[in-house]
Write a structure and sequence with these properties.
Length: 174
């Protein structure tokens, strides 16, 4: 097992990431910076469209600085990538989750490699949304600009009597 010293603040995290995970991961890595309340997710996830079996072995997750193997975290990441990965493929990632220490129990496994979150659904959805948003940003491409004028919007038709005489389309009486 190789040991690495911590990267100094403002250091060269990408260079260290390339040294540990390889340049192939670094070339496909999408940076994540996601925060909500007391939860913060930082790190990298490989573009699922270019994940190879060798890259899929890179699955590192840290909770409050401690390396973890957690099914909930893996499921959230896998679910975010599922429409881009094949059935036999796995996502590649290096993620750092920061959470209030009172919201996580690290005494689940004797070696402390597994955790139990007090609000597991919240943590799952937070990780899922963070990874999914980064993947969707990667897929977004600017639409081509059209020089053709757009048609004017049609007027809203009046409600029909058969529609139950609802009055939502009429202005409110003063």
């Amino acid at each position: 097992m190789r040991q690495y010293r911590a990267v100094p603040e403002g250091g060269q995290k990408e260079r260290r990431l390339g040294a540990i995970c390889g340049t192939a991961f670094l070339e496909q890595a999408l940076a994540i910076e996601w925060q909500h309340g007391d939860l913060t997710l930082r790190g990298w996830v490989a573009d699922p469209n270019h994940t190879t079996p060798a890259l899929a072995e890179i699955q590192y997750c840290y909770v409050n600085g401690r390396m973890m193997r957690d099914r909930l975290i893996n499921h959230a990441i896998r679910q975010a990538c599922e429409d881009k990965l094949g059935a036999d493929q796995q996502p590649a990632f290096v993620l750092y989750l920061e959470i209030d220490p009172h919201q996580v129990d690290v005494n689940v496994h004797p070696a402390k490699h597994e955790v139990r979150f007090h609000q597991s659904r919240l943590v799952h959805d937070f990780i899922y949304q963070g990874v999914l948003s980064v993947l969707q940003q990667q897929l977004e491409t600017p639409l081509p600009l059209d020089d053709e004028p757009q048609p004017a919007p049609r007027s809203i038709p009046e409600n029909r009597v058969a529609a139950g005489r609802n009055h939502f389309a009429e202005p409110a009486a003063s």
